[in-house]
Amino acid sequence: MKEGNMSTKLLDITGREIAGSVHTIFQNTGGHQLHFNKSDLHLASGIYLLSISVNEKKYVRKVFVE
Question: H or E element: which one contains 49?
């Protein structure tokens, strides 16, 4: 991913926001890891969407929770 301001949101399959970043953070170029605690967010097993916004680009990826 490119360098820039990044914000994240975890969405359920209908697009409802489950969790998001409290504020936008600056990230350097390179690989990054995000950790969500299933118990803290009361997530059931299933498919979720991870929305990542960097500068003006938005990426959406499927996330599988066991």
Answer: strand 46-54
Q: Give domain limits for the chain.
A: 4-65
The string of pLDDT tens digits covering residues 7-38 is 888 899 999 998 876 446 666 777 767 777 78
Q: Is 39 left (phi over 0), alpha (psi -120 to 50) or beta?
A: alpha
Q: State both tokens at 19.
A: 């969790």
* pLDDT tens-digit readout, 51-62: 988 888 898 999
Distance CA 60, CA 39 (A): 23
